[in-house]
## 1
Amino acid sequence: MRRLSLLASILLLVSPVSGEEYLNGITWQAPPVVDPGKSDDSPPSDAVVLFDGTDMSHWKNGDNWPVADGVVSSGKGQVVSKDEFGDCQVHIEWSAPNPPKGEGQGRGNSGLFLMGTYEIQILDSYKADTYHDGQAGAIYKQTPPMANAMRAPGQWNTYDILWTAPRFNDDGSLQSPAYITAIHNGVVIQNHFELLGDTPYNRPPQYKQHSSKGPIALQDHGNPVRFRNIWVRELQPVQGEQTRKPYLRDGKKETPID
């Protein structure tokens, strides 16, 4: 009897008090099935793999960045992906030079550019000083990261980024800004930050109309930063159609909600 009483108490906790069920009246398309990969360093099945450790064939100027032992090192000139993306998820792993050399912006400097225009900084900020909106994880010249989650030089850092591309009206004016959420080594460093525009060094940020998709770019700043496991997933909004008004259902009884 005690077991039955306990089971009844649990059912009361997890069961709705009312018999009514809310239905939103939307007919949803089934979400696509994505294989997440066999391990943490495996790309999902729908990812565009930009660097898998073998070659730089997915990049313009890739021949000038040397590949060895599954790793590519920054070389002469920036590299720009041949594929272009709008809203997307980006995964990239990078390692600052060891032993470290230089100071400030001259210490393990590179940069990841979304749509070839908007930079999240790559820099050796491990026990090293620079201006805060230029350290690792900063949206360059716009905001510092929420935390400094750097690993020591020579160790691998991971950025996982959710990018919402800006939208423009037909007349070139800004319809909606870009947003970025970024996770550095498992630590949230940007939380849906609204970008003020592009990320130049020598002037205030501004938006200038561009296409709805753009490339991923990696900067050459003269420092031998290493990279591996670079992939991108295009993000598509969930699809659904309002096929009837929202309603409450209680058994066979349906009550529309105005």
Note: The two ends are 46 Å apart (CA to CA).
## 2
Amino acid sequence: MSKAKGLEGKTVVLGVTGGIAAYKAADVASKLTQLGACVPTVMTSHATRFVAPLTFRALTGQRAETDLFAAEDRFEIGHIGLAERADLVLVAPATANVLAKTAAGIADDLLTTTVCATKAPVVFAPAMNPRMWENPITRRNVALLRELGYRFIDPEKGRMACGTEGWGRLASPQRIVDTVVELLCRKQDLAGLRVLVTAGPTREPLDPVRFLSNRSSGRMGCALGSAAAARGAMVTLVAGPLSLTPPPGVETVSVLTTAEMHEAVIHRADEQDILICAAAPCDFRATQVAEQKLKKGSPGADTILLAPTVDILRELGARKRSQVLIGFAAETENVLANAATKLREKNLDLNVVNDVTQPDAGFEVETNRVTLLSPDGRTESVDLMGKRELADVILDRALQIRQSRGQ
């Protein structure tokens, strides 16, 4: 299956500020260009200390501007020309300094004057030391900018270049690109529909400190929730423990165990138009949860008896009426055969199957390659792509199923 570029004819002005995360902006510029966007780059003087302007020119084919008074065209005032051309201005990374200057209305270089002059949406992807991100002045500036209509791709939690752990790491390049695509290519073909998505793992306790779980991060489910909301749906995300922040614009119901996920989903299922079960709930639970931490060598510690958990997808398939029901199958062997059995036994309208032994697909990565299985035996291979991009493919198929039923 070939991928449409999607951003042809769009101009994304990329602002790069001075921080170690500036090198990741090169990946963002490359990905946006590959999607068909025109990506002129504006760099602060500090940004050029981390990445050379030539890097962005080579990746985008566009001049990387650094000087407020050095417009390439003598009849064009640099920041005004960029501001008027932009369909969207993306600042990645955005330092505490550029956030503070924008919040205060300071326009003293090419980037801040472009941000000040544009009428296009402006998106900040902050990156800074966790103490700077948590500083009350930074929090105030971010809150003010949000109130004024500026958009944010919040930083992630992780290890900083300085060795500090915490919130402040630049969002992944794929997440940044997915957000740009969402903002510039929004279609409202799910307006008025109710969509429920499950995401992430569940945890089944063994004792007060240990549990059974799996490697699911919840990225695919969150991508589906974000994509459905962007297309106008009223979205409920039923999520186990996630390794990322739930997307904005959706109702998030947090659960822990498979039983809790079952209760949350079944309680809401009848009112939904589309149900997408992207979560990886545990298949087994301990028959008895120890009241105290199990110690090595203690009686019974070497044997844990397991029982099956409730099968959420099977129950949804048995009770569905007119809803579109989509499942996921994460397989390690006999991939298509196992997925076809699941499709049939659980009465699915579509099964999204992938081989999770592949390093660039499945759990804990930002990309996926899948095969879509239909009840009539049709299979459709979907090439490697970002999970946010794949989410739109899956939603397109859900709409096609509804249309085939005259809904």
Note: The chain is about 35% helix and 25% strand.
## 3
Amino acid sequence: MNEQEYDRYTDALCKRILFFGERFCRCADTLYLGGGTPSLLGPQRLNKIINASKKAFSLDGAEITLEANPADDLFETLKEVKNAGVNRLSLGVQSAIEQELAILGRRHNNSDVIKTVKDARLAGIENISCDLMLGIPKQTQKSLDNSIDFLLSLDIPHISVYLLKIEEGTPFSKAKNLEFSDDDTASALYLQAAKRLQSAGFEHYEISNFAKKGYQSKHNLKYWKLEEYLGIGPAAHSYMNGERFYFDRNTEDFIQGNEPISDGKGGTKEEFIMLSLRLSNGLCEEKLESDFGIKITENYLTFKQKIISEGLATATEKGFRLTDSGFLMQNPIVIKILDALGI
């Protein structure tokens, strides 16, 4: 996109924000500027979006996150958006190993990351999150340890850990000279990362997320707790008033005023079970009965005891939660739970 297109997109986005503000008449306590690299819009456009969001949804005392690429020189941008209310920064670091970054097509290096974290702190932003990727071709337990050492040296309070997922039709899916990690290797890397980060004082509060005390992502927790959220922009998804809807990913269509696409009902019992088992708090059996009218069955109790005995889950006061090993088996466990409850 060129500067003119950035302006058109920003204007269209602000118009939609104000429209939905009037439509839903809600106050919001988080704002997440993400999906790509929004910092490319520059501070003036970002501030315009933030101010439109404040006008539409108040944002009094809100957590306001900006996603950014550590390869970009961001100090002036961070200083200006901090004044507009940004108080959290999310950086796509992925790895501290040059060879792995090259495979991922990333253009930053470790010096860029160090500079961006330093610039964020100089701008007054202490709440910083970094992404770490697992299962990168040629990644080893030693190289992962080196990446974790690098992130820990930054003294940041939040780290997200993602297993590399190969989407069909992407350059990665067509690469013939790359050897991707098998499931056993990727699982070992995940358990290694979880153990190291927890040993360093991070709480494993969600399947892919680790935080120091008081630094959990308030915005992302809304997704996992089945709370309402509004996504505005190409490919953005929403859950409001019990309905799910999303925008097509075509940017020009969004600028031209396309309507969101219905994606059916949300907040189902299946979603509740699946999302609860992503969180360290786990599944609350009382809530299953009170909110969804689901009775706990003998089959459910038998299966719960089985995964506890196998080290995949631990009992809680109100139900159970998955262990780190259990998180790796979350999907099949959810399917078994639904079957055991007759859902």
Note: The chain has two domains: 3-16+24-220, 269-340.
## 4
Amino acid sequence: MKVIVVAGTPGSGKTAVLINTIKALKNRNYKIAVAKIDCLYTEDQLRFRKLGIPTLVGLSRDMCPDHYTIYNMGEMVSFARDNRSDMLIIETAGLCHRCAPYTESGLGVCIIDATTGPNTPLKVGPFLSTANIVAITKGDMISQAEREIFRERVTEMNKECRIIETNGLTGKGSAELAVCFEEAPEFCYEKDQLRHNAPFSICTLCVGEMKIDSKHHRGVLRHINGVQKYIGE
């Protein structure tokens, strides 16, 4: 089985791009399963199921959606195997710009919105810099010069990635993405691991402290001047 992890900024058009890509893959007779991970609410599973695709939904709630995706990878792989799928596509909400849920033997796809500004690729961290594929959406809404600057910023962050310009409405780029999904390596769950470590900082805010002054907090803390320290057990 092949496993494709798709991450990206909110509103970048991840689901729309995937719908078009899945249609192209179905025409090639692939059996696909989808795991849709969101934070609080989603109806996107209905769009996948209309295509006849078995879809597992997970809501991370007060947990980082990328951490949630990593933690539940075994459940999602089992779901795909139970459905005798050739390919598991995991769409994660990807809200934390410090996380990267891609694994060594999976295919990592970053979907990013070109209208968010030319410096966005410099801000989003490992889920772009460790991706195999960077799919740029909404490029038709900006000028040619802006598109070229955006692509340059992407390559500054990830020189090895393949850039595909996509459009969730027209289906542009979906055939090219489908070929990339086809060429993904075989997934090896038992021996797999993350490409990049998750954030190592844990503090009392993470476990529910609501007071707002630094004197109330413990754990791995970073001050505004960049100095980091550890306080407490």
Note: The chain has a mean pLDDT of 91.
